[in-house]
Amino acid sequence: MQCAGAFRTRILTTYRIVTRRVDSCSVSTLPREEPARPLVQTLVPGPRSLELARELQEVSEARPIQFFHDPQQSFGNYVADVDGNKLLDAFCFIASLPLGYNHPNLIEAAQSSLWLPHLVQRPALGYSAPPEWVHTLRTKIMSVAPQGLASVQMTCGCGASAVENALKAAFIWKRTLERDCVDPSPTELESCMRNQEPGSPNSMVVVSFEHAFHGRLFGSLSTTRSKPIHKVDIPAFRNWPVLPFPESEQDETRCLELVEKTLKGNRVAALIIEPILSEGGDLHASPAFFRGLRALTRRYQVAMICDEVQTGVGATGRFWAHEYWSEGLEKSGPGTSTAAAEIAPDMVTFAKKMQASGFFFKPEFLPPQAYRIFSTWSGDPLRALQASVIIDTIAADRLVERVRIVGDYLSQALHGLNHPLIERIRGRGTFLAFDLPSPARRNRFLQDMRNRGVVVGGSGTKTVRLRPALIFDTHHADILLETLASAMASQQ
Amino acid sequence: MQCAGAFRTRILTTYRIVTRRVDSCSVSTLPREEPARPLVQTLVPGPRSLELARELQEVSEARPIQFFHDPQQSFGNYVADVDGNKLLDAFCFIASLPLGYNHPNLIEAAQSSLWLPHLVQRPALGYSAPPEWVHTLRTKIMSVAPQGLASVQMTCGCGASAVENALKAAFIWKRTLERDCVDPSPTELESCMRNQEPGSPNSMVVVSFEHAFHGRLFGSLSTTRSKPIHKVDIPAFRNWPVLPFPESEQDETRCLELVEKTLKGNRVAALIIEPILSEGGDLHASPAFFRGLRALTRRYQVAMICDEVQTGVGATGRFWAHEYWSEGLEKSGPGTSTAAAEIAPDMVTFAKKMQASGFFFKPEFLPPQAYRIFSTWSGDPLRALQASVIIDTIAADRLVERVRIVGDYLSQALHGLNHPLIERIRGRGTFLAFDLPSPARRNRFLQDMRNRGVVVGGSGTKTVRLRPALIFDTHHADILLETLASAMASQQ
């Protein structure tokens, strides 16, 4: 596993990050190279992390903190912690770092005078944007718009806000269709102020799937079905249906029949689904299943929202994971782009690796009136500027192609281990996962890996999920695999 | 009005911003002084703004944009637009700029190497924070914690997320009290996955007030009651009650009786209220009314959430507007601090002028289990660093005291105008408002003021709201008053 030299010659793009230098003197203290291997000096979390957690817990929530990282000492695929450890990071802040730590392109761009004012005052973008906002959206963010989705709405700060606003757009669209009139009636305007029908369409629902995760605010949480700890004690929209996610390809027909029954029998504004159910345990379905959902949502005039908060931005080997939905259709030659347009969801949400949040949508989902999808800040220009550099770097360094190559390598090597305790290896690109025999075993494994210098994450009940940055290379994969092998050996 | 020299000698603090210089060469292009007066070269929005809006609307929502600002040319209380106008800004991105534009303290701090890594990768603060996060929360954010509120939870990006998470904390607290057991039962854990009782406490409610604004996501929107355009077509929690906000001090007893009836007759987790109903039209009630709410919420074991997203951070002449609730009690001598603790709400939300969002809370509102108030990013360290500098600058320059002085000056001058069309001048500090005779007249006035070089905002149906930065001075007030007088003269 140590040497993957022969394989590495196949890699098309040059791994430029380690050879580039950060030139600006103002950041001379930032590291410029990755360590050759993880460096582990204490247990993780170490004593300094534990002390900081204790101090933080006195005034705020610190219990979920795994360790305190040192942003000044982290670089590339390696996160440094405050106890002097340098860990190979294949989890990357819960799947949210596309270019690893302190990427030179970002460091350079961030020192531009263009960024500075946005750092010192946050503009209310919906009320008064700066001119570069137009440029950022039109030429950068829209350059990665999924096929068929010609508009974008940025939202404030997190994936949940992207989902909540996409759901709002779906409700407004559906109600506008239902009433066959753009403007709400006086009765609707009056009743909504009391949270009552018809203005508040409380019998209208959103359909989501078992094990789905779409966020933790009140609307998004009503569609989340992954774990009780997220949902218990919080009121939910009680009539929003939950449907089974197929347990196998054989199960997909049954599930699609249930979807059809539900769409037929309810007043449904939207169906929301992740291309890979991530938080819920890295659950996959076939492209045909998603195409089936698309056909049904189209037939019953239901908005199809594809939640790519975790799957988006390259890690699956495509920029958007839902691009795989055309698999099998691609070879059909003429009519391919028609087919791709046919399967396009109506909206695609993003956050995490974009570092900014929002959703792409078909123009018909723009509310007919202004101020209906709105908030004071309506996004964050700094985070959008970051997204611009990320998008450019992914294109210039052909990182999505790299992810496919490194992902294949990693996946094959995982299968090659043929370890009796490692079950159901699955995934796309480097967005990989496998199961261990029990939740306790999985949790011990995560801890053990970290203490050996490699950070990986959990999902579902007994799944290990790999969520490295897009700059994760085969030699990082080798270190991960070695560490995994020794961790597994010690568990037996 | 031109000269307020005699008055100005009373001002305690030196207005340091215009004399400080930005030294770093990397920002030499940023302006360092305010213009002496507004500079108006075109209508606002001008042709360049209109063109940018047209371009933006092709891919995103641009209809609510009033004009495009130029962050590189804005300074202090003056916002530059892309058409070369320099406008005195008494609205400040919908009440969200505490220190105006490009404040030297922020410019200087933002160039520190400490900020840089947070600009290039957004950490998942709930999962792995950097060490300075502990410092920022403990010594900066907590330094402005309202009395009695010893904990803080930062949230992602916007005021609505602060409110939604505060509401979640209230529900978790109330359910934990109700079941008299920290851990939810197996039945609760199972039923919440289907959005059903008892796990989803759908008969438990939040009480809010007519004309209130608390945000636009699904939970917060259910408590917002300001305008139908925010609410229509979006499902709401149908049993969450709305109560009248007093129309006058004489009306307060009736309103409190209705509150008591509602708290008695329902399963209420929280009552949420703004200290000044801002978006709804700058509606005020007496300190005694708020103390009455506090007494009732305590009696019926209901969490009292004070929503200070718009009112917080100094503009009312106190750091938090709810500090005024002790008015009348302060003179009672001994027992004052007990009285202040008695009236403290259970949670206080913030965003806007803090530039970061979250809520302060009494430690008993920390959920008994981890991961219940959580999200990937769980805040934004950049925006919290900004908040730190803002907090330090407000203290060092005694800006809250300044606001009281400038606010008194501005309020007296507004009254002094004695204009027949200006009604109900009201407010605290520079957080001032008045009414015009009709919505059409108010809207024309806002437009007219902007074309004369001064930005003010609207709220409610016919209210003009002033929301200048905390560095707004008496000579800015003079320009505002002059411009107002000529705008009014042209309307007659």
Automatic annotation (TrEMBL), chains A, B:
Keywords, sorted A to Z: Aminotransferase, Pyridoxal phosphate, Transferase
GO molecular function annotations of the record: 4-aminobutyrate:2-oxoglutarate transaminase activity; pyridoxal phosphate binding
Gene3D superfamilies, per database record: Aspartate Aminotransferase, domain 1 (3.90.1150.10), Type I PLP-dependent aspartate aminotransferase-like (Major domain) (3.40.640.10)
UniProt lineage: Eukaryota, Rhodophyta, Bangiophyceae, Cyanidiales, Cyanidiaceae
Listed InterPro entries: Aminotrans_3, PyrdxlP-dep_Trfase, PyrdxlP-dep_Trfase_major, PyrdxlP-dep_Trfase_small
GO biological process: gamma-aminobutyric acid catabolic process
Cofactor(s) needed for function: pyridoxal 5'-phosphate
A Gene Ontology cellular-component term: mitochondrion
Tree of life domain: Eukaryota
Enzymatic reactions: 4-aminobutanoate + 2-oxoglutarate = succinate semialdehyde + L-glutamate
Protein name: 4-aminobutyrate aminotransferase
Family listed: Belongs to the class-III pyridoxal-phosphate-dependent aminotransferase family.
A Pfam family reported for this protein in Swiss-Prot or TrEMBL: Aminotran_3
